[in-house]
Amino acid sequence: MKPIAIFRHAPTEGPGYLAGFLDAHHIPSQLIAIDAGDAVPPSADGFSGLVFMGGPMSVNDDLPWISQVETLIRDAVARDIPVLGHCLGGQLMSKALGGKVSRNPVKEIGWGAVTVADNDVARSWFGETLRFNAFHWHGETFSLPQGATWLLSSAPCDNQAWAIGKHLALQCHVEMTAEMITSWCEIGADEVAAAGASPAVQTTEEMMRLMGDELPQLNAVADLLYRKWMEGLRRDR
After folding, report:
1. CATH of region 4-230, choose from 3.40.50.880, 3.40.1350.10, 3.30.420.10, 3.40.190.150
2. Tens of pLDDT along 64-87?
3. Rounded Cα–Cα distance for residues 69 and 93 (Å)
4. What is the 3-state secondary structure (H, E, C) of 84-150?
5. At what angle do helices 17-24 and 204-230 cross, to 10 degrees?
6. Residue range 40-51: average pLDDT?
7. How far is CA 191 from CA 16, 135, 141, 185, 211, in A?
8. From CA 230, how far away is CA 214, in angstroms rounded?
9. pLDDT (tens digit, 9 = 90+) per residue, 88-123?
């Protein structure tokens, strides 16, 4: 089986919980560290799936690798190779497939409830889960590309996830670990303080306080999503 390519765009925004999930299921993976200067592969054909993680930049920034990643996403979709995006990764998928990424009405940072859409596609991804507390850290939002089915929403952000067949784009973060949350709270303390007027921004102290209760439930949702996504992998690749 060919490896899954995992694209990292910032040193602190790696695969997190997904890495352990893939190891537990004996799925090979290859980290492509865009932040460290790794090149974007010209084709998706060498991989069984593509995963795009988060990052502090915007997909609308003038960065040379963004157009290359968009081309790679379209190549993967054309080849029926599953694509999974987290936050920035979901925005990259949306833009690559014809959606738009724009400023969300408010910043959304910390633990916040998301509601699963009432449709069959959403139920195929989330099972019996109707609502859960996801982890958020974003100021922009995506629109749904043509052919996408809406999966998740939150009060501050209407579009939290969509799917097209075996491809899943998430605005929220389900890949979090305790180490990642702690690191983000330390590194992002100034951003949180500056955005404190937003009703959808928690203090770093509140994020850390809630982590013990919320993280196990988030990991359980991640298991659902990653297991469903893994079903689409081409085992002969």
Report:
1. 3.40.50.880
2. 999 999 999 999 999 999 999 999
3. 9
4. EEECHHHHHHHHHCCCCEEEEEEEEEEEEEEEECCCHHHHHHHCCCCEEEEEEEEEEEECCCCCCEE
5. 30
6. 97
7. 22, 16, 18, 9, 19
8. 24
9. 999 999 999 999 999 999 999 999 999 999 999 999
